[in-house]
Amino acid sequence: MLPRKRADLPGYWDYATMTRRNDYSFNASDASFTTNPHIIVYYDGRLVYGTEP
User: What is the pTM of this model?
Assistant: First the structure.
């Protein structure tokens, strides 16, 4: 995915129980946009970026 592009994610997301402590992709040391291998991207059912938890 290109920087500053939008991805529509289908489905229901329950953010009510998510905190920084249990968010696999959160990195407190990031002060600006950066790559994050804890954010995964699938394309046509194939993992193309990141590492699954």
Answer: 0.47
Considering only CA atoms, give the Rg of the chain.
13
CB 24 within 8 A of CB 53: yes
Q: What's the DSSP call for residue 13?
A: -
Q: Are 4 and 15 in contact (CB under 8 A)?
A: no
Q: How far apart are CA 5 and CA 19, in angstroms?
A: 25
Calpha distance 21→47 (Å, rounded): 25
Return the bridge partners of 41, or none.
49
The mean per-residue pLDDT over the stretch 1-18 comes to 66
Quote the CA–CA distance of 39 and 52 in Å, as a whole number: 8
Q: Which two tokens stand for residue 53?
A: 């938890």
